[in-house]
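Reopening this one. Same input as before:
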Amino acid sequence: MNPIFMKRGFTLVEISLVIALFLILLSFAVPYGLRFFKVERLDGISRDLLETLRLTQSQAASQNLDSNYGVSINSSAFTSFKGNSYASRDADYDQEFAIPNGIEISGLSEVVFYKLTGLPNQSGEIRLSSGARISAITINSQGTISLELSVSLGNP
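Same output, byte for byte:
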């Protein structure tokens, strides 16, 4: 046969081999990608809550609208509010932030920062968890708010 008329291309065996190798690589990559996504989502919502707590504390310390400010936390959202408690707040000043599905929250459920001093009405810890990872936000009696990200409770 004349080499000019020979068809060039990939055989079915070659294509099948490439697809099989791609699927094998994909089977290793997907679990790590999902784990990375969960960790980043937990870290992101932890940082959002930390920022909200610090902003709320700053509003109270600067005597914004001559009021105390606080943050209320439940399983589906956290809310920044103006007032002495969430129950007696001025709802016009609420800012609510959703907590994504798959993230569990425990610890303090409400923190109020006093005007002028910015000191919290209580100290303690807020723990956010997703699978075997947790993030801990600590509020001490002097008003220092700190975050410890992605503490592993087992295999990642």
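So the earlier flakiness isn't reproducible anymore. For the record, The chain has one domain: 14-152.
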